[in-house]
């Protein structure tokens, strides 16, 4: 489990990433001001011809530019909250630029004073707004909602109220126990497969955990979810370590009808209660998506009842990776639609040498799977499947 200090560091990194991503909103106004300030101080510097290190005004300009960069966050926060306030801030920034330009005629001392005044004003104006923005859990952005999680930010469909509610109540986590297990298994440089990646709720934690040298192979067939996931990967600067395949995982290549549910992540190649539409998707075996010879540490299969078919399509992967760990969703309702009994379903994995453990979503601890008669009564549970002894995973917690 990650420590509180780890989460604070992740939050700081996510905040810096958000600042970079939101920068274009305020760039036009701030660029004009920066250009004017440069012109004023360059003219003054040419007249006196000091070195940049000796010029206190250029030092003040650097400080002011830092404040201007922070102001970009405030501009966007105001845009989200209130159009009139956003326009007022733009007018204030324009006026500051004009004041700086006119200060050149009043001499160096007046210019220095103007810089100090502007810097102080911007610092006070930005501080509270920036902290409020970064402290938010969810920010509405029209058709999507930007939600903060410990590893970064996700764009979620604004119409998916149940998911948004669960994310807000969970502090940016939907399945905290599963995420804790993923983080405990993975190490720097590992490769992980996420079939049923949805919007990135487990992709982001996995990508952060494996680091720049690692890789996440994500598979998501639903067109809206896959499009948002692609944007989420870019939003968090993870293009270099996440590969997205917008297709379904199955036993053989082909085409199939995906039943798309109103709740993100509740889409299935099987008949799905509550599905309001279907879309044709490509089906590919996972063996085709993972290059031969890839050392795969973990594979997550959460494909709404199609897990057995996804598993049949990754036999080469299983042979090449004898120490592979699996995270698989078990749902009795899904199995009934697939025509499988719990006994037949679990035998697919136990016959391949896996020992099954249930994931406690409250704290990420693991316990041996309960008897099948009782397991068949649960609504849904994520199962961790290991070939190695539990002692091979020192960061996992077994009850």
Automatic annotation (TrEMBL):
SUPFAM superfamilies: S-adenosyl-L-methionine-dependent methyltransferases. The keyword Transferase applies. Pfam families: Methyltransf_21. Residues 194-354 form the Methyltransferase FkbM domain. Residues 61-106 form a coiled coil. GO terms for molecular function: methyltransferase activity. Keywords: Coiled coil, Methyltransferase, Transferase. This is FkbM family methyltransferase. One of its GO terms (biological process) is methylation. InterPro entries: FkbM_mtfrase, SAM-dependent_MTase, SAM-dependent_MTases_sf.
């Amino acid at each position: 489990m990650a420590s509180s200090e780890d989460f604070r560091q992740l939050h700081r990194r996510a905040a810096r990433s958000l600042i970079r991503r939101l920068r274009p909103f305020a760039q036009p106004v701030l660029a004009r001001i920066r250009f004017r300030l440069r012109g004023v101080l360059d003219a003054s510097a040419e007249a006196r011809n000091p070195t940049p290190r000796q010029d206190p005004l250029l030092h003040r300009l650097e400080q002011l530019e830092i404040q201007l960069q922070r102001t970009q966050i405030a501009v966007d926060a105001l845009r989200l909250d209130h159009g009139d306030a956003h326009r007022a801030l733009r007018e204030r920034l324009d006026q500051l630029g004009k004041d700086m330009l006119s200060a050149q005629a009043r001499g160096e001392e007046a210019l220095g004073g103007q810089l100090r005044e502007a810097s102080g004003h911007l610092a006070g104006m930005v501080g509270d707004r920036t902290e409020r923005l970064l402290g938010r859990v969810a920010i509405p952005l029209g058709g999507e909602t930007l939600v903060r999680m410990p590893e970064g930010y996700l764009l979620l469909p604004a119409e998916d109220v149940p998911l948004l509610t669960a994310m807000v109540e969970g502090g940016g986590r939907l399945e905290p126990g599963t995420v804790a297990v993923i983080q405990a298994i993975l190490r720097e440089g590992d490769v992980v497969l996420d079939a049923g990646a949805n919007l990135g709720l487990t992709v982001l934690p996995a990508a952060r955990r494996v680091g720049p040298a690692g890789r996440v192979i994500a598979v998501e067939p639903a067109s809206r979810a896959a499009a948002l996931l692609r944007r989420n990967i870019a939003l968090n600067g993870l293009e270099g370590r996440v590969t997205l395949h917008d297709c379904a995982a199955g036993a053989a290549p082909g085409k199939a009808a995906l039943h798309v549910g109103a709740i993100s992540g509740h889409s299935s190649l099987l008949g799905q209660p509550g599905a309001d539409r279907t879309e044709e998707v490509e089906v590919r075996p996972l063996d085709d998506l993972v290059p031969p010879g890839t050392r795969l540490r973990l594979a997550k299969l959460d494909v709404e009842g199609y897990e057995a078919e996804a598993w049949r399509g990754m036999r080469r992967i299983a042979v090449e990776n004898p120490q592979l760990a699996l995270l698989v969703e078990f749902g009795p309702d899904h199995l009934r639609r697939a025509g499988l009994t719990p006994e037949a379903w679990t035998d697919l994995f136990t016959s391949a040498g896996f020992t099954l453990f249930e994931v406690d979503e409250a704290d990420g601890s693991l316990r041996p799977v309960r008897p099948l008669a009782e397991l068949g009564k649960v609504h849904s549970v994520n199962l961790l499947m290991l070939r190695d002894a539990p002692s091979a995973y020192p960061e996992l917690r077994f009850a």
